[in-house]
Amino acid sequence: MSNSLLSDLAGALVSGRVQMVDLTNTLSPDFPVIVLPPEFGQCAPFRMEKVSRYDENGPAWYWNNISMNEHTGTHFDAPAHWVTGKDVPSNTVDAIPAREFMAPAVVIDISAESAVDPDFVVTREFLTKWEVEFGRIPPRHWIALRTDWYKRVGTADYVNMQEDGAHSPGPDASAVEFMVHERDCIGLAVETVGTDAGQAMHFNPPLPAHSILHGNGRFGLQCLTNLDKLPTFGAMIIACPLKIEGGSGSPLRVVAMIEGKNV
Known about the structure:
Helices cover about 20% and strands about 25% of the residues. The chain is of the alpha/beta class. It has one domain (about 5-260): Glucose Oxidase, domain 1. Strands 1-15-13-5-7-11-12-4-14 form a 9-stranded mixed sheet. Strand 8 (about 160) and strand 9 (about 165) form a beta hairpin.
Protein backbone atom coordinates (compact mmCIF):
# COMPACT_ATOMS: atom_id res chain seq x y z
CA MET A 1 0.00 0.00 0.00
CA SER A 2 1.40 3.40 -0.97
CA ASN A 3 1.81 6.37 1.36
CA SER A 4 -1.03 8.04 -0.51
CA LEU A 5 -3.41 5.18 0.28
CA LEU A 6 -2.42 5.19 3.94
CA SER A 7 -2.83 8.95 4.08
CA ASP A 8 -6.27 8.65 2.50
CA LEU A 9 -7.26 6.06 5.11
CA ALA A 10 -5.94 8.22 7.94
CA GLY A 11 -7.89 11.19 6.62
CA ALA A 12 -11.07 9.12 6.33
CA LEU A 13 -10.71 7.94 9.93
CA VAL A 14 -10.08 11.47 11.23
CA SER A 15 -13.00 12.93 9.27
CA GLY A 16 -15.41 10.16 10.22
CA ARG A 17 -15.91 8.96 6.66
CA VAL A 18 -14.62 5.62 7.97
CA GLN A 19 -16.04 4.49 11.30
CA MET A 20 -14.93 1.80 13.74
CA VAL A 21 -17.49 -0.72 15.02
CA ASP A 22 -16.57 -2.69 18.14
CA LEU A 23 -17.42 -6.37 17.62
CA THR A 24 -16.16 -7.47 21.04
CA ASN A 25 -18.04 -8.53 24.15
CA THR A 26 -16.74 -7.23 27.48
CA LEU A 27 -14.54 -9.85 29.12
CA SER A 28 -15.67 -10.45 32.70
CA PRO A 29 -16.02 -13.34 35.16
CA ASP A 30 -19.71 -13.48 34.26
CA PHE A 31 -19.20 -14.05 30.54
CA PRO A 32 -20.17 -17.68 29.75
CA VAL A 33 -17.85 -20.21 28.15
CA ILE A 34 -18.54 -23.28 26.08
CA VAL A 35 -19.41 -26.35 28.15
CA LEU A 36 -18.10 -29.77 27.07
CA PRO A 37 -19.33 -33.19 28.19
CA PRO A 38 -18.12 -33.79 31.78
CA GLU A 39 -15.60 -36.48 30.78
CA PHE A 40 -13.52 -33.85 28.98
CA GLY A 41 -11.45 -30.96 30.30
CA GLN A 42 -13.33 -27.68 30.56
CA CYS A 43 -12.74 -24.15 29.30
CA ALA A 44 -11.81 -21.88 32.21
CA PRO A 45 -13.80 -18.66 32.55
CA PHE A 46 -12.16 -15.26 32.92
CA ARG A 47 -10.80 -14.49 36.37
CA MET A 48 -9.35 -11.19 37.64
CA GLU A 49 -7.54 -10.60 40.94
CA LYS A 50 -6.58 -7.12 42.07
CA VAL A 51 -2.88 -6.67 42.80
CA SER A 52 -3.12 -3.03 43.85
CA ARG A 53 -5.27 0.04 43.29
CA TYR A 54 -3.58 3.12 44.70
CA ASP A 55 -3.28 1.42 48.09
CA GLU A 56 -0.73 -0.15 50.42
CA ASN A 57 0.16 -2.76 47.75
CA GLY A 58 0.91 -0.06 45.20
CA PRO A 59 0.20 3.56 46.16
CA ALA A 60 0.51 5.03 42.64
CA TRP A 61 -0.68 2.25 40.37
CA TYR A 62 -3.61 -0.01 39.59
CA TRP A 63 -3.24 -3.47 38.05
CA ASN A 64 -4.70 -6.97 38.14
CA ASN A 65 -3.65 -10.55 37.61
CA ILE A 66 -5.89 -12.29 35.09
CA SER A 67 -6.37 -15.91 34.01
CA MET A 68 -8.56 -17.61 31.42
CA ASN A 69 -8.67 -20.24 28.72
CA GLU A 70 -7.41 -19.26 25.24
CA HIS A 71 -11.00 -19.64 24.03
CA THR A 72 -12.77 -17.49 26.61
CA GLY A 73 -14.95 -14.51 25.63
CA THR A 74 -14.66 -13.01 22.17
CA HIS A 75 -11.82 -15.11 20.80
CA PHE A 76 -9.83 -16.31 17.80
CA ASP A 77 -9.43 -19.98 16.80
CA ALA A 78 -6.16 -20.89 15.09
CA PRO A 79 -5.90 -24.07 12.98
CA ALA A 80 -3.99 -25.86 15.75
CA HIS A 81 -7.10 -25.66 17.92
CA TRP A 82 -8.48 -28.75 16.16
CA VAL A 83 -6.90 -32.13 15.49
CA THR A 84 -7.47 -31.68 11.75
CA GLY A 85 -5.23 -28.60 11.84
CA LYS A 86 -2.43 -29.99 13.99
CA ASP A 87 -0.07 -30.40 11.00
CA VAL A 88 -1.13 -27.31 9.03
CA PRO A 89 1.79 -24.90 8.48
CA SER A 90 1.85 -21.75 10.64
CA ASN A 91 -1.04 -23.15 12.64
CA THR A 92 -0.64 -21.33 15.98
CA VAL A 93 -1.41 -17.71 16.82
CA ASP A 94 2.28 -16.75 17.06
CA ALA A 95 3.06 -18.26 13.66
CA ILE A 96 0.15 -16.89 11.59
CA PRO A 97 1.37 -14.03 9.35
CA ALA A 98 0.16 -10.67 10.64
CA ARG A 99 -1.39 -9.83 7.26
CA GLU A 100 -4.05 -12.48 7.94
CA PHE A 101 -5.45 -10.50 10.88
CA MET A 102 -7.06 -7.86 8.66
CA ALA A 103 -9.54 -8.98 6.02
CA PRO A 104 -12.82 -7.89 4.43
CA ALA A 105 -16.09 -9.42 5.54
CA VAL A 106 -19.39 -10.50 4.06
CA VAL A 107 -22.26 -10.55 6.54
CA ILE A 108 -24.99 -13.14 6.05
CA ASP A 109 -28.12 -12.32 8.01
CA ILE A 110 -29.80 -15.39 9.51
CA SER A 111 -31.27 -13.52 12.49
CA ALA A 112 -34.90 -14.09 11.44
CA GLU A 113 -34.36 -17.81 10.92
CA SER A 114 -32.46 -18.11 14.22
CA ALA A 115 -35.20 -16.29 16.13
CA VAL A 116 -37.74 -18.87 14.94
CA ASP A 117 -35.43 -21.88 15.28
CA PRO A 118 -32.43 -21.69 17.64
CA ASP A 119 -31.11 -24.84 15.94
CA PHE A 120 -31.22 -23.28 12.47
CA VAL A 121 -28.67 -24.92 10.19
CA VAL A 122 -26.95 -23.07 7.35
CA THR A 123 -26.51 -25.35 4.33
CA ARG A 124 -24.81 -25.05 0.97
CA GLU A 125 -28.23 -24.69 -0.61
CA PHE A 126 -29.03 -21.78 1.71
CA LEU A 127 -25.78 -20.01 0.79
CA THR A 128 -26.20 -20.45 -2.96
CA LYS A 129 -29.76 -19.08 -2.74
CA TRP A 130 -28.44 -16.18 -0.64
CA GLU A 131 -25.90 -15.38 -3.37
CA VAL A 132 -28.65 -15.17 -5.99
CA GLU A 133 -30.27 -12.38 -3.96
CA PHE A 134 -27.22 -10.56 -2.55
CA GLY A 135 -24.24 -11.43 -4.74
CA ARG A 136 -21.35 -13.84 -4.85
CA ILE A 137 -19.17 -14.23 -1.75
CA PRO A 138 -15.70 -12.94 -2.71
CA PRO A 139 -12.52 -14.90 -1.88
CA ARG A 140 -10.38 -14.28 1.23
CA HIS A 141 -13.27 -12.76 3.18
CA TRP A 142 -14.48 -13.47 6.67
CA ILE A 143 -17.93 -15.02 6.34
CA ALA A 144 -19.87 -13.60 9.27
CA LEU A 145 -23.17 -15.18 10.31
CA ARG A 146 -25.39 -12.53 11.84
CA THR A 147 -27.80 -14.17 14.28
CA ASP A 148 -28.32 -11.26 16.72
CA TRP A 149 -27.27 -13.83 19.32
CA TYR A 150 -25.20 -11.18 21.09
CA LYS A 151 -28.47 -9.66 22.33
CA ARG A 152 -28.84 -12.74 24.54
CA VAL A 153 -25.60 -12.04 26.44
CA GLY A 154 -26.36 -11.84 30.16
CA THR A 155 -29.15 -14.41 29.93
CA ALA A 156 -29.29 -18.21 29.98
CA ASP A 157 -30.46 -18.09 26.36
CA TYR A 158 -26.95 -17.16 25.19
CA VAL A 159 -25.42 -20.63 25.66
CA ASN A 160 -29.01 -21.98 25.62
CA MET A 161 -28.09 -25.16 27.44
CA GLN A 162 -30.83 -27.79 27.63
CA GLU A 163 -30.86 -31.37 28.94
CA ASP A 164 -29.48 -32.58 25.61
CA GLY A 165 -26.82 -29.87 25.32
CA ALA A 166 -26.57 -26.40 23.84
CA HIS A 167 -28.92 -25.12 21.15
CA SER A 168 -27.63 -22.43 18.79
CA PRO A 169 -27.46 -21.95 15.01
CA GLY A 170 -24.54 -22.84 12.80
CA PRO A 171 -23.43 -24.43 9.51
CA ASP A 172 -23.46 -28.03 8.37
CA ALA A 173 -20.61 -29.72 6.51
CA SER A 174 -21.96 -28.80 3.08
CA ALA A 175 -21.95 -25.11 4.01
CA VAL A 176 -18.43 -25.15 5.44
CA GLU A 177 -17.07 -27.09 2.47
CA PHE A 178 -18.66 -24.45 0.22
CA MET A 179 -17.17 -21.58 2.24
CA VAL A 180 -13.69 -23.08 2.23
CA HIS A 181 -13.34 -24.84 -1.12
CA GLU A 182 -15.67 -22.87 -3.38
CA ARG A 183 -15.45 -19.39 -1.87
CA ASP A 184 -11.94 -19.52 -0.31
CA CYS A 185 -12.99 -17.82 2.93
CA ILE A 186 -10.35 -16.71 5.42
CA GLY A 187 -12.58 -17.94 8.23
CA LEU A 188 -15.99 -18.03 9.86
CA ALA A 189 -17.15 -15.34 12.31
CA VAL A 190 -20.15 -15.84 14.60
CA GLU A 191 -21.95 -14.23 17.53
CA THR A 192 -22.57 -17.56 19.25
CA VAL A 193 -20.20 -19.26 21.68
CA GLY A 194 -18.76 -21.49 18.95
CA THR A 195 -18.46 -21.63 15.17
CA ASP A 196 -20.38 -24.89 15.20
CA ALA A 197 -24.08 -25.17 15.94
CA GLY A 198 -24.94 -26.11 19.50
CA GLN A 199 -26.06 -29.58 18.44
CA ALA A 200 -23.25 -30.09 15.90
CA MET A 201 -21.74 -32.97 17.87
CA HIS A 202 -24.63 -34.98 16.41
CA PHE A 203 -24.04 -33.86 12.81
CA ASN A 204 -22.50 -36.17 10.22
CA PRO A 205 -19.62 -35.49 10.31
CA PRO A 206 -19.65 -34.02 13.82
CA LEU A 207 -18.50 -30.45 14.50
CA PRO A 208 -17.93 -29.66 10.80
CA ALA A 209 -17.00 -26.00 11.24
CA HIS A 210 -14.05 -26.77 13.49
CA SER A 211 -13.01 -29.85 11.55
CA ILE A 212 -13.18 -28.41 8.03
CA LEU A 213 -12.10 -24.84 8.75
CA HIS A 214 -9.01 -25.69 10.76
CA GLY A 215 -8.06 -28.70 8.67
CA ASN A 216 -7.78 -26.29 5.75
CA GLY A 217 -5.84 -23.61 7.62
CA ARG A 218 -8.81 -21.29 8.13
CA PHE A 219 -9.73 -19.38 11.27
CA GLY A 220 -12.67 -18.86 13.59
CA LEU A 221 -14.02 -15.85 15.47
CA GLN A 222 -16.57 -16.45 18.21
CA CYS A 223 -18.69 -14.44 20.65
CA LEU A 224 -18.83 -11.35 18.44
CA THR A 225 -21.29 -8.49 18.89
CA ASN A 226 -22.86 -5.88 16.63
CA LEU A 227 -22.82 -7.74 13.34
CA ASP A 228 -26.16 -6.05 12.70
CA LYS A 229 -24.27 -2.76 12.43
CA LEU A 230 -22.18 -3.95 9.47
CA PRO A 231 -23.16 -3.82 5.79
CA THR A 232 -23.58 -7.02 3.82
CA PHE A 233 -20.41 -6.16 1.86
CA GLY A 234 -17.78 -3.54 2.50
CA ALA A 235 -16.66 -3.95 6.12
CA MET A 236 -13.03 -4.64 7.01
CA ILE A 237 -12.44 -6.77 10.12
CA ILE A 238 -9.32 -6.35 12.25
CA ALA A 239 -8.77 -9.31 14.59
CA CYS A 240 -5.30 -9.55 16.15
CA PRO A 241 -4.92 -12.37 18.70
CA LEU A 242 -2.32 -12.24 21.43
CA LYS A 243 1.02 -13.61 20.23
CA ILE A 244 1.01 -16.63 22.55
CA GLU A 245 3.86 -19.06 21.93
CA GLY A 246 2.28 -22.19 20.49
CA GLY A 247 -1.18 -20.82 21.23
CA SER A 248 -4.28 -22.51 19.84
CA GLY A 249 -6.29 -19.31 20.08
CA SER A 250 -6.67 -16.11 22.04
CA PRO A 251 -9.17 -13.65 23.47
CA LEU A 252 -8.90 -10.42 21.48
CA ARG A 253 -10.49 -7.08 20.62
CA VAL A 254 -12.22 -7.34 17.24
CA VAL A 255 -13.18 -4.18 15.37
CA ALA A 256 -14.58 -3.47 11.93
CA MET A 257 -14.01 -0.48 9.67
CA ILE A 258 -17.06 0.68 7.71
CA GLU A 259 -17.90 3.69 5.58
CA GLY A 260 -20.64 6.01 6.69
CA LYS A 261 -22.15 7.87 9.61
CA ASN A 262 -21.29 7.52 13.28
CA VAL A 263 -22.13 4.16 14.81
